Amino acid sequence: MADAVPSLGSTPMDLDIRATRTSANMLDGLQSLLDSKECCDIVFLACEEQIEAHAVVLAASSPNFCKYLRQSSMRGLKEPSAPGHEMEELFTTVLTSPHGAAGTAGALSPVAPRAAGEGEEPQAEVPETEALSQPKEEPGMDGAGKGSDEATAEAPMEVEVEAPKPEEAAPARTAGTTSPANPTHHEKAKADKVRVQVNGLSSSEAMHILLDYIYKGSAAASWEYKATTAQVNKEILRLARCFGFAQLHEHAARWLAKGLTTENVVDRLVTCEEFGLGLLREKITERLALKPAEMMQVCSSPEITKHPRILQDLLVQVASLKKGCTEATEDAKEEKQEPKEEKPAKHDKAEREKEKHEKEKQDKAEKPDKPEKKHEKAEKPEKPSKQAEKQTGKKRKAGLPGSLDESRWFSYAV
Description:
Residues 40-260 form the BTB domain. It is built from 20 helices and four strands. By secondary structure, the protein is mainly alpha-helical. Among the domains are: 38-101 and 183-217, Potassium Channel Kv1.1, Chain A, CATH 3.30.710; 257-329, no CATH class.
């Protein structure tokens, strides 16, 4: 029994133990955190709306946004993001909440001096060490101890500076109030969030669709793309290109091919040209060129004159289709003319058929065998006529010689 148990030995062995699928549960958990706005550490400012999210989720889903966050943290929150990359043109990192800014400003500013009484001008500030180092002299005395008007005019003014007491420096806190230097936990959490301004959006709808795709749509096959207007779809194309989401970019590109009319086709062709959708633009122009009435309406619109390149492509497409139509008509004409030229061939067939009929007639005329056979049949001994048969019968009855009856002859023979 001991020999039957295999030994593991010294060589390493890998066991194929697959982990359970937890991606769906993780996405549901992240979505619940986003809905409840828990553990959010980044705020997007889009069209006067604050949209909270999780920076780690965005950075994990998009390497471009992760790079942007890293660079903005290295520069610091006070320095605005330098334009250059498209991500930096789209987003601008701003300061944190006003509570955090006020606390930082209060910590960096010096202690303000005590205000003068009402109706009095504020006295000049004199450092305490300088005031103490100067000797006290009586008014009207010069340096030698003698009184003079010049001495009184040149004598330094003595300023008394008192250090503020702790009770006066910090006012008493009442219940339920906090100082800017010591905010509550909720205010501190708000101050710690990174605030990012989203530039170039007409509404916050595009940002909501982007976050919905990141938290749900990137892993769900049944995710439905919902863009209400062409402007929102164009903004989503821009966001998808910045974040590097090819699938979201494809959803927005397919939206451009739906509901095409003569009013929106020019704008959609411009969008295709702006975002490098060359194949989609070619398909739209081909579909438009198949309808001459709609093509003439689009080419005559004043909006198309603003985009000469698109107008040129449409005219080239029409010219190519016209050329193809002319070639097709010429081919059809040639096909119709070819049967007329083939008429001699039909005449040859008729002549061949006539020749066949003539040969058959000649063959029938050249057959002499059948008439000869009929002649041979005619040369055979003819049957005796009825009169001859009667005469032979009479002779047989009379018993003439030479006309022996067969029955008698048979009896004699027996």
